[in-house]
Amino acid sequence: EVQLVESGGGLVQPGGSLRLSCAASGFTFSNYAMNWVRQAPGKGLEWVSYIGRSGGSIYYADSVKGRFTISRDNAKKSLYMLMNSLTAEDTAVYYCARDFPPEDEPTTPVIFDYWGQGTLVTVSS
Amino acid sequence: DIQMTQSPSSLSASVGDRVTITCQASQDISNHLNWYQQKPGKAPKFLIYDASNLEMGVPLRFSGSGSGTDFTLTISSLQPEDIATYYCQQYDHLPITFGQGTRLDIK
Fold first, then answer.
1. Spatial CA neighbour of A121 closest among A95, A103, A100, A101
2. Does A102 or B103 have the greater pLDDT score?
3. A44-84, pLDDT tens digit by residue?
4. Which of A111, A114, A119 to mutate to test the interface with B (most CBs of B within 10 A)?
5. Euclidean distance between CA atoms A35 and A104, whole angstroms
6. Which residues of B touch A68 (CB under 8 A)?
């Protein structure tokens, strides 16, 4: 069974940093690209970032470019997001989502076929 | 960026009704359109890919159609467990964009 479990969310002050993690199980992690998608309270879904299965293809939404860094460790079956210079507009539930189908890089996001349960990031003083 | 506009934003229907949600892209995206269902307090669930292909395990009362700029998600006979917010998503161009969502509840 495919499982994605996010962690690392919490309360952070404006201008602060946070590192999110997503632990994957139930599939060959190194075969799949991964994404981060966020959802502000009461709002819709916003794609944040993508990383190809080898880490060679990386993309960001303009709203986080230059502040967020996506990475992965295939040996640890984990996805990460380092978030710097956080603002109130970054307050959201952050989901990691597997990308489908599995393909050789270079690749771009296609389908988000499995999602974690999300981790809440609150930026507030 | 490609804008995805869903209508209606919210919808009330009765059990057994046929329900239709539309999604319009701001430019031609071929069939590069997916649909997701999100129940309250839960993560989104993938339903339909490439506009009309049902993900394995999704009930057959769900169907999708369309190409170019206009797309439709249809539930042929609404069930109580279908209460959720539905999102379309395009992957034709980066950045990936979602519709604003259609909230569906039971009348």
1. A95
2. B103
3. 999 999 999 999 999 999 999 999 999 999 999 999 999 99
4. A111
5. 16
6. none
